[in-house]
Design goal:
The protein is 21% helix and 39% strand. By secondary structure, it is an alpha+beta fold. The protein has 2 domains: 1-39, no CATH class; 48-203, no CATH class.
């Protein structure tokens, strides 16, 4: 009788272990419970901070590293990052890490490196507008967060495209397409591009 009850107890323990394993999933990163974490580089259910291997960015409002409010949106595979009333679109693989109620954002570069977005679009916009001598970014203005450069020189940058009024030879009015790029990590102005005939034109303060 004792052996029979002991065998039943053993069977119950084995059965319960199968049930728990089925619900929780294996702890080696192969179960459904861990798929998202492992795919994004996390270990033991936690992201690896400082390496940009957090979870895929999700739409919502977050506090950035400087305490600023960030709004993340997503539409047809493109992310939008809005800070201080300035929005930048990004067709990129955006991930986020949470640490002490602050959010770090990263974009994966084409060679696989994760690039931290330290400069927000409102700050980058101010830098570009100042260099282009524009007061604001109006309806003709577009800001995109994109990869620029190649190889070891590749980096993430905000690219502002807009038009401004000018006069060729000081007589003929013309709309000039201008573009400025600002490094998304350092805030450094990378480049300013204007049409080839810009040297013949004067630009008014707008």
């Amino acid at each position: 009788m004792y052996n029979k009850n002991f065998n039943i107890l053993i069977l119950l323990v084995v059965f319960m272990s199968f049930v728990v394993t089925a619900q929780v999933g294996p702890s080696d990163g192969t179960g459904a419970y861990h798929d998202e974490v492992v795919a994004s580089g996390g270990q033991g259910g936690e992201p690896v901070l400082g390496e940009g291997r957090g979870v895929m960015a999700k739409p919502g409002e977050y506090f950035g590293q400087q305490g600023q409010m960030m709004q993340i949106s997503q539409n047809q595979g493109r992310f939008g990052l809005r800070v201080g009333g300035v929005n930048a679109d990004c067709e990129c693989n955006l991930t986020q890490e949470e640490f002490q109620n602050r959010t770090r954002l990263y974009a994966r570069m084409s060679e696989g490196r994760n690039f931290e977005i330290k400069v927000m679009p409102d700050v980058a916009s101010e830098t570009a507008l100042e260099r282009l001598r524009l007061r604001n970014c109006d309806e003709d203005c577009e800001i995109e967060l994109r990869e620029v450069g190649v190889g070891d020189n590749a980096r993430l940058a905000y690219e502002m495209k807009t038009q401004r009024n000018s006069k060729v030879f000081g007589l003929f009015g013309a709309r000039m397409n201008v573009r400025a790029q600002v490094d998304a990590e350092t805030g450094e102005l990378i480049s300013v591009n204007k049409p080839w005939w810009a040297f013949m034109a004067t630009e008014s303060e707008e």
